[in-house]
Design brief:
Layout (H helix, E strand, L loop, with lengths): L2 E3 L9 E5 L6 H12 L3 H14 L6 E7 L4 E9 L5 H12 L9 E9 L8 H11 L5 E7 L4 H8 L3 E7 L8 E7 L18
Parallel strand pairs: 5-6
Antiparallel strand pairs: 1-2, 2-3, 3-4, 4-5, 6-8, 7-8
Length: about 200
């Protein structure tokens, strides 16, 4: 199932969001991530192995955003969280310290979400993440984002994500991250209540 996304302005072609065979197009996806996230060749090679390992999870899901000509300009992927996963083991003590550890259960992790800078601010990232999470059948979603006020963090907040823990340090990551969580389905309204969501019991 594909969703059309408005180009959002003159000179911006229409984009179609739909299922993505991420394993087959991993190099295209990582090229988008490299530009969006400022990654070098060595970092991309490391991430390539990580992505392919994640895709071995039977419930991993991915969506892509492509131009009418088929060029990939954005992607998102994730999977149900498992406490034994590396990411989960790193963030667990931070979440426990804020009383948010329960978010690690029955949650879908947004592992990566990237849109090429030439196509940002046109609703592509919003369409990717909402379409992905709408199909997962879990009550909530979690993710990590660099702990700074950025357009990405603004997007996540507008979708209902709230800070669960901040100043989370991942090994080898130069900047701290924030872990954010949102009940599913994600918010569609622009004007939303900014109070933290209730903690899972």
């Amino acid at each position: 199932m594909a969703a059309a996304v408005s180009g959002g302005g003159p000179g911006v072609p229409g984009i179609v969001v739909g299922p993505l065979d991420l394993a087959a197009r991993v190099d295209e996806a990582l090229a988008v991530q490299a530009v969006a996230f400022g990654l070098g060749p060595e970092e991309i090679e490391v991430r390539r192995h990580i992505v392919l390992r994640h895709l071995e999870h039977p419930q991993a899901r991915a969506l892509g955003a492509a131009t009418a000509g088929g060029r990939l300009v954005g992607f998102v992927y994730g999977m149900p969280n498992e406490r034994a996963q590396w990411w989960s083991t790193v963030v667990e003590p931070y979440l426990r310290a804020t009383g948010s550890e329960g978010w690690l259960d029955d949650s879908f992790v947004i592992t990566e979400l990237h849109v090429h800078p030439d196509h940002q601010q046109h609703g592509i990232g919003r369409t990717l993440i909402t379409a992905l999470t709408d199909a997962v059948g879990l009550p909530r979603s979690i993710l990590s984002a660099i702990d700074t006020e950025s357009p990405a963090r603004g997007l996540y907040r507008s979708l209902g994500y709230r800070d669960l823990a901040r100043q989370v340090h991942f090994p080898s990551a130069p900047r701290p991250y924030a872990v954010m969580g949102a009940p599913l389905p994600l918010c569609r309204a622009e004007a939303i209540d900014f109070r933290p969501p209730p903690q899972p019991g």
